[in-house]
Amino acid sequence: MPETIDRARRRWITTAGAFLAAAPFVRAGSARAEPAASPGTLPTLAAGAQTGFHPLKQVAAGDLTVAYVDMGPATGRPVLLLHGWPYDIHSYLDVAPALAAAGYRVLIPYLRGYGETRFLSDATPRNGQQAALAVDALNFLDALRIETALVAGYDWGARTACILAAIWPERCKGLVSVSGYLIGSQQANAMPLPPRAELQWWYQFYFATERGREGYARNTRDFVRLIWELASPKWRIDDVTFARSAPAFENPDHVAISIHNYRWRLGLAEGETKYDDLERRLAAFPSIAVPTITLEGDANGAPHPEPAAYAKKFTGRYEHRLITGGIGHNLPQEAPQAFARAVMNVDGF
Asked: What keywords sit in the KW lines (predicted)?
């Protein structure tokens, strides 16, 4: 470990211990706002010190061979960080070294259809339904022989983290979820929304058509860049940052997984029967009892529920935080300190 990182780790542990001890517990339904970066609460690594994740590891897990980041001490408490659509592991580029420096073992897998993650068989359906992604995450933990972990994510990753916490709480030490409770069902998605809410889902309806599938396949990078800009209107996305993530969308299964996910939600594509029982449990919207912190950016341009709509789904120790400062949908990358702080705080609940 470089000396600069080692010094940062010692400073982080000292400061974070005091911060965790003083952090307030807020009951379900309440919230507090905090800036994206709070000077004096957490030490930071030098900006730009982490330019990529190398080398990646590979592990066979369920239907996949998963490419993943494994950072920090092997004996540290595991933290599973899950990315969303259309993003990748680099959303955690600054979160990961901060948590690793604090003594955590940080694990960041590429989801199915992203990066170097591949299906083991050509015959496996390119399925993007929520249950498949959740089972992928469980298989990943099993493959690494990890019994319990802190789980955290945003977008598709938040939904997967919520499912892990709801269905397999014995595997989750704590949960950090951007935009709260995101477990869904085909039945709920069949209900129309008010027109302005439907407008936010324009790409879902686009993907329901063959023109949309072909358009996404032909213009993947431009489409992704547009989604980033709409979902995070105040995030200054430079070309270097986007270029770092763009290769992840060249995965041969990326388009198929993305299209299936959104078509499945609307009942336009079938899932796999092996997930039927799990989907029935999820359609009942199970409560989450593990310690949880939910986060929301004050400039999230993507569709997301209001915190009051999901607060009662968290029946254990729970806190909601509004992250201010023009923070959009990709909260871990836009506000890494706030995200890392939430992971450490929920570990202290």
From this structure: Hydrolase
